[in-house]
Amino acid sequence: MANTILSGDQILVSKLHYGAKIATSRLPGFSKVKRNDIIVFTNPVNKDEFLIKRCIALPGELLSIIHHQVYVDSKIIRQPNTSISHYYIETFDHKAMIHLKNKFKLESLYPDNNTSTIVPLNPEIAKEIQNMPSVKEIHKTEITGRQSDIYPQENSNWNNDNYGPLLIPKKGLTIKLNPSNYFLYKKIIDVHERSTSFISNTEIYINGKETRFYTFKQNYYFMLGDNRNRSIDSRYWGFLPEDLIIGKATLNILSYTSNSYHLNLCLL
After folding, report:
1. CA 18 remoteness from chain centre
2. 26, 65, 155, 173: which has the highest count of C-beta atoms within 10 A?
3. If one looks up domain 85-140 in CATH, what number appears?
4. Is 206 helix (H, G, I), strand (E, B) or coil?
């Protein structure tokens, strides 16, 4: 969540928004999870760790990422202005590059040459740089090919910047299982919903019985970090089950900079 929430920041988390969790049950809340809510939750991979990410897709929605751009139900989801992506920048000469770096306090991610660099930027700064006459080219960097650590690791040809499409599971929704989508939902069936499943040739078994359908027992969400190139989020560990949600991050109270805290009081 870099640039939105920084390391060391003290934030207020409301457990009442979605309903406080008591043991295995949850009290009624006064709000449902909404798109772009910043949520604190238990890490689905390491239950001893808490994570904070932004909710991008809700139960029952179809998500895809195409050339960095997030789509939900075929509609463009704009990146928050605080989000960070990696951009390739090329200027017409070395002097222009020096001026650019000084003006925007840019720090190169990789060794660069006299007229080009790769830097982390938010959308507003990227647009401002794009309009500068000294800039020859600016565009987001893009990963090509398969990433072996992208969810689901078993048979995914996806990567950070090109992901999906995939259906976000919804409580009570029944899907037809097949060899193409089985590994997308295997973790839900086996881990979050405590059944046992396996695939043999083209046949799928759940709790020892062959089946071609599965009905989800709870809602799930797709989470992304605002530092899109470096965030370990749903693209790596899959769907967030509702029962791991702790609460909504509502207020950034204190920020830690220059070896000291200062009052922030910034709504999230």
Report:
1. 20
2. 65
3. 3.30.70
4. strand
CA distance 169 to 228: 23
Q: What are the structure tokens assigned to 240, written together? A: 């967030």
pLDDT score for 258:
62
pLDDT at position 259 = 66
Q: What does the alpha-carbon distance between residue 179 and residue 155 come to, in Å, rounded to a whole number? A: 10
Q: Which residues of the chain, if any, have pLDDT below 50? A: none
- The structural domains of the chain, with segments of one domain joined by +, span 1-68+220-267, 85-140, 172-217
Nearest CA-CA partner of 166 in 65, 56, 43: 65
Do 56 and 233 contact (CB within 8 A), yes or no?
A: no
d(CA 248, CA 11): 10
Task: Round to whole Å and give the CA distance between 203 and 210.
Answer: 7
Please, is 16 exposed, middle or buried when counting C-beta atoms within 10 Å of its C-beta (0-12, 13-18, 19+)?
Answer: middle
What is the largest distance, in Å, between two alpha-carbon atoms of the chain?
Answer: 69
Angle in degrees, 0-180, between the axes of helices 123-130 and 94-104, rounded to the nearest 10: 150
What's the confidence (pLDDT) of residue 153?
Answer: 86
Domain 1-68+220-267 has CATH 2.10.109.10: yes
Nearest to 55 by CA among 202, 201, 224: 224
Using CA atoms, how far apart are residues 233 and 64, in angstroms rounded to an integer?
15
